[in-house]
Amino acid sequence: MAGLYYRGMRLTEFHQLIEDEFGRAKGRHLVHSHVLASQGVTVGELVDAGADLREVWLEICRDFDVPEGRRLGLDTPERWR
């Protein structure tokens, strides 16, 4: 079964990046409550509107000063199976 894509990034990959960086609980809270500085709407609203998930992720990284070395998520063996 193919995953749901939003302009090139799977929704599951987007959520995994958020969970990897912020943890499951904080990541879920962030999606529903964080208003992106550049957009003026929440992350969840952008996802629901079909925004480019890569761009949304990069905006989250900018808002939270995520170092560039962590913007691709965790490099774990499970991720490459």
UniProtKB/TrEMBL annotation:
<protein>
    <recommendedName>
        <fullName>DUF3046 domain-containing protein</fullName>
    </recommendedName>
</protein>
<dbReference type="Pfam" id="PF11248">
    <property type="entry name" value="DUF3046"/>
</dbReference>
<dbReference type="InterPro" id="IPR021408">
    <property type="entry name" value="DUF3046"/>
</dbReference>
